[in-house]
Amino acid sequence: MTRLGQVFLGMILIFLYTPIFVLMAMGFNESELYELPFKFSTRWYSALSTNTELLTSGFNSIVLAVITAIGTLAALALSRRTFRGRSLLQLLLLPPIAIPWLITGTAC
Amino acid sequence: MFWSGSAVRSKRNSKLPVNFIVPTEGAIVWVDGLAVATGAPNPEGAAAFINWMIDPKFYIEWATKVGAPASANSKALATLPADDLSAQVHKPEYMVSKNVMSAMPDERREAFNNLWQEVKAFYAE
Amino acid sequence: MPSKATPQRALKGARILPQWVSTTALLLPAYGWLSLADFLPLLTMFLFSFMNKTPMGKAPIEFTLRHYRAFIDQPYLVKIAANTLLMGLWTTLTCAVLGFLAALALVRCTTGARRETLLILILLPFWTNGLVRVFSWTMVLRENGFLDNLWHWIAPTAGSIAILYSREAIVIGLVHGYLPYRIITCYIALVTIDDAIIGAAQSLGARWWVILTKILIPLAAPGLISGAVLTFVPVIGSFMEPRILGGKVGVTMGTVIEDQFTQAFNWPLGASLSFTLLAVTLAIFATFSGILRRGTGGTA
Question: Which domain holds residue B73?
């Protein structure tokens, strides 16, 4: 039984990582259209290192990711405390998930 | 269905077995425009950019190396090799069947979009 | 899970302010941000959904309910909505089964450092961008892609197994996106179950399916349900996965709504469709939670 569980977990990991590894490999592929067979090249990485616009947007993304930590605080309060209006606050979390994010972005 | 520029790219750069034709029933044609907004901070720069975009020298490079839409500047279009797909877009026999897309009233645009959505939904089944 | 006694004792010693102050302090940043970045724009969109046209330019604005009649005026939308709900159901179900089994395997079949490594490996795909992950599936699933090549290497004479641009491809992409999340929620629900309960059941002669259906699933139910909600709800509004992995068949409520915003420039219709979708989702969960509450005797 233990063996079976471990094999299953291995299969899950293969499922999760196959596209990511294929993508990583394609970063080193010569063709710009992800054509196979594979031909090794570092041209895309050298293109990235000189593209300041892409690097700036990468940095902005990191800043945004750090901001999302404030969600953890609210999660602490919602799970550890009971107070009046807790269910309402929890219910309010649904619309932002349910409505396609593009719309919220457009409205901003 | 394809844009002529994408068809050029697919045929020449990616060597895909595609061709560009305009069906006898007609096709939709539209013109992308470049304009300078009133009170823009740098109108000279904008004008220089527009001139560069329609310049035959830039156009031939764009069209042959990347794959561009057919230019509205006839001088630029004349620089293309005769077998280039974009050079064929303005053929007289095509011009008669094309409908030029222009601004339309909101109601008609909404009906048009809903119909297009229905077509896509039909072919998704 | 630390024992409950320690933090409470620590709190009691240090309590100078009443508890509601700290609760508010914890909630304020997130809900403040949500008000600004989510609730306010969504309220604006709700207002837009009653307008006759996108409020831009100088044209006068009239208020109308006609966009909420879209499902009657354009009956093909009902079919799209049904397909979308089906896609959400398949994704949620696949995620539920795979996620629960993976979490169970983590809890019962791994220990210590190995389990921690596995948990990190499961979470790591989350660090890559969603669009990138969806796009990478096109390279795996398409004709002459990774899987197809692998298959031809094993069975050179067999036909292609490429399934890009199909409903299955969409579900695969969506499951890939939400599975790590589901494994973690199931894991948290399962890891808190006391081993002694299972030991007791086993010593009393309970078979594995009895343990599964009478102990593990009921005790993990809150985690399973919240995981299901957090998969189903965003999946039925998704448009990236259907568009990229579905091609021609990728027409869902998400893509229809996106079209209204990005191509048709009909924000009122797009907004009203979104709020209709939200209402349908809430109705489904209201029904669903009622059934569950009755089924588990009010514990869920």
Answer: 4-124
Please compute, for residue C119, the number of CA atoms within 13 A of its CA located in the half-sphere on the CB side: 17
Contacts of residue B72, defined as CB under 8 A and 6 or more positions apart, other chains included, come to B31, B54
**Is residue C165 one of the residues assigned to a domain?**
yes
Q: How far apart are CA C150 and CA C156, in angstroms?
A: 10
- Whether B125 sits inside 8 A of C250 (CB atoms) is no
With contact defined as beta carbons under 8 Å apart, do C179 and A9 qualify?
Answer: no
Mean pLDDT of C124-134: 82
Indicate if A74 and A45 belong to the same structural domain. Answer: no
C33/A70 touch (CB, cutoff 8 Å), yes or no: yes
User: Does A35 lie in the same domain as A1?
Assistant: yes
Q: C179–A18: do the CB atoms touch at under 8 Å?
A: no
- The pLDDT tens digits for A16-46 are 999 888 888 877 776 666 666 677 777 777 7
- For residue C292, give how far its alpha carbon lies from the nearest alpha carbon of chain A (Å): 17
Residues of C in contact with A27 (CB under 8 A): none
Q: Mean pLDDT for chain C?
A: 85
| Lowest-pLDDT choice from C5-9, C148-152, C202-206, C242-246 | C5-9
Contacts of C48 in chain A (CB under 8 A): 107
Please tell me the total count of domains within chain B.
Answer: 1
Structural domains in chain C (count): 1
Residues of A in contact with C38 (CB under 8 A): 95-96, 104
Determine, for residues B109 and C264 on separate chains, whether the beta-carbon distance falls below 8 Å: yes
A60 inside domain: no
Give the Cα separation of C98 and C172 in Å (integer): 12
pLDDT in tens, A47-84: 777 777 777 777 777 777 767 767 777 777 777 777 77
| Residue contact C282–A94, C-beta within 8 A | yes
Q: Within an 8 Å CB–CB cutoff, is residue A28 touching chain C?
A: no
A43 is in which domain, residue-wise?
1-51
Residue C243 lies in a domain: yes
A45 touches chain C (CB under 8 A): no
Give yes or no for a contact between C68 and C149, defined as CB atoms under 8 angstroms apart. Answer: no
Tell me the residue ranges of DSSP E strands in chain B: 27-29, 98-100
Q: Is there a single domain that holds both residue A107 and residue A76?
A: yes
Assess whether pLDDT exceeds 90 at residue C255.
yes
Q: A-C interface: how many C-beta pairs under 8 angstroms? A: 165
